[in-house]
Design goal:
It contains 8 helices and 2 strands. The protein has a two-stranded antiparallel sheet. A hairpin with an 8-residue loop joins β1 and β2. α1 runs antiparallel to α2 and α2 packs antiparallel against α3.
């Protein structure tokens, strides 16, 4: 109802499109949660090897900056509320956001937004997707290593715990996310 007491008709297609976009964001957050369950704890670092980062890149590259950001913000909210969406090696809930992986987790919305923003700015090529994924990963590691530096008090220790062991796997994830996102974009048309 409007202020004058008249009913305002909302076109059904607008409501449908809003619901469709909301569903896409929810499904994307579930996708990242499923990726988080594929986790390999490493005995020499509190940061596990996980597919979460791959999921974040796929979401950002496929959905773009705004929807990717929204999906990862929803993912963090789900985890903070205690839903089992984070990798199972941590304490779960809001405590996981303050643990060794907290910097990586908190960077996820920004990572998806950066990857999505770069992908939206030109031809949807594999090369652009690789570049977008690489830039997203830089943001991811700035956030993750920054937080580990605060926790450990040592940038060198943060790099030992959160970077060296993961570089090779992250390069593979970037390539896979680029390929998967391009296929997903074709499927979503």
């Amino acid at each position: 109802m409007s202020r004058t007491g008249q009913t305002i008709a909302v076109p059904q297609d607008r409501t449908y499109e809003w619901a469709r976009q909301a569903a896409i964001v929810v499904i994307a957050s579930v996708f990242v949660a499923l990726c988080a369950q594929v986790t390999v704890p490493l005995p020499f670092t509190p940061v596990p090897l996980t597919l979460q980062n791959f999921g974040v890149l796929v979401v950002g590259l496929t959905l773009g900056a705004r929807r990717g950001f929204a999906a990862l913000l929803l993912y963090l909210a789900e985890g903070a509320m205690g839903m089992p969406v984070f990798n199972p090696t941590g304490p779960g809930g809001v405590l996981q956001l303050f643990g060794p992986t907290g910097g990586f987790l908190m960077a996820y919305p920004l990572v998806a937004a950066i990857a999505g923003w770069v992908m939206e700015r030109g031809n949807k090529t594999f090369k652009r997707a690789l570049s977008a994924g690489f830039l997203g990963e830089i943001a991811l590691f700035v956030g993750g290593l920054g937080w580990l530096t605060i926790l450990t008090g040592s940038p060198a220790q943060a790099v030992r715990m959160g970077l060296y062991w993961f570089v090779f796997a992250e390069v593979i994830k970037i390539f896979l996310a680029a390929a998967v996102s391009l296929r997903a974009k074709q499927w979503m048309r």
